[in-house]
Amino acid sequence: MEPSYRLIQSQANRSFVFKLEPFGLHTRWHYHPEIELIYFMEGRTSAVIGESFQEFEEGDLVLLGANFPHVLQESKEFVRLHPEIAPFGLIVQFTDTFLGNDFIQKPELKPIQTLLSKAKRGLKFHKSSVEKVSDSLHKMQYLNDTRKLISLLEVLAELAETAEFDYLTPKDYFYDHTQDEDRMVRVNEYVYKHFADTITIADVAKIANMTESSFCRYFKSRTLKHFTRFLNEVRVSHACKVLRNGQSVTDAFFESGFNNQSYFNQQFKKIQKMTPMDYQKWKLKGVNPIKPKEPSISSGTPLL
């Protein structure tokens, strides 16, 4: 079975993706151009990493390189024995250029360059290494965006200094992802550039060099969601940014590309599980009517 391309939707006003996410049975074998740091916080998780089967448990830490095929799912046996526990973890996704095209190439960051190169084979860190960064990983969810970024670099720097890890794939492991990725990247870039404008299926099908019906099937098979859902998520994510800046709900509606305010309100509540006004009160005043979890686009929890 071929892994599908996973479109990682960036979070508004962030250069990398940070989320707490359950590992559900619906997840498919996939890859994406983002490097992925996964910290398993609760439960036991089954995984296909490259071409091998793995089991991860609370306290495990894994770093996967760009375009590394993988899937994480809750362990059926663990769920059967512990139905009250939902396996979940902390996931950080970033490209090697998330701080600029040449930032990671600075001589001071040579150890991190080497670490990310090793991650092309997948890395599982030993407990002794995890203990050095576990406190930072737990605290990261409570930090503001600037301190999250600093903490991420500190964690990567700490991991870069250790040789205490195991490779998850053989030395010669390689997966050719280029053709599928190129098409999805073109679509992704187009949406993020034009989401405030009118975007039709015909527009993105043309970008992908496909018929409209073929594109719809292709996009759904690769991302497990309809294109309209993805577009609405991008627009709502931008609306969240506008609301966090203290602008009005009307501003958020106009600037995010929706052409009907009733539909905007409907989609915002569907994706965020709260109204635009409630979201703004939550972010600016700390009034949280539903106590949402840390955001995850794939799991339907609020987008920060």
| CATH class category label of the largest domain | Mainly Beta
Coarse morphology? globular
Termini gap: 34 Å
Number of helices: 11
What's the CATH superfamily of the largest domain, by name? Answer: Regulatory protein AraC
Rounded mean pLDDT is 82
Number of strands: 11
Profile the largest sheet. 6 strands, antiparallel
- What is the H/E order? EEEEEEEEHEHEHHEHHHHHHH
Q: How helix-rich are the residues, as a percent range? A: 40-55%
CATH architecture of the largest domain: Sandwich
Briefly note the structural class of the backbone.
alpha+beta
Radius of gyration: 20 Å
Instruction: Name the poorly predicted regions.
Output: 291-304
Strand adjacency order, main sheet: 2-9-4-7-10-11
Number of domains: 2
Strand content: 15-25%
Q: CATH topology of the largest domain, which one?
A: Jelly Rolls
What does this entry look like structurally?
This protein is of the alpha+beta class. The protein has 2 domains: 4-167, Regulatory protein AraC (Jelly Rolls, Sandwich); 178-285, Homeodomain-like (Arc Repressor Mutant, subunit A, Orthogonal Bundle). Helices cover 42% and strands 17% of the residues. A 6-stranded antiparallel beta sheet has the order 2-9-4-7-10-11. A hairpin with a 2-residue loop joins strand 5 (44-49) and strand 6. It holds the Pfam family HTH_18. Keywords: DNA-binding, Transcription, Transcription regulation. GO terms for molecular function: DNA-binding transcription factor activity; sequence-specific DNA binding. Residues 185-282 form the HTH araC/xylS-type domain.
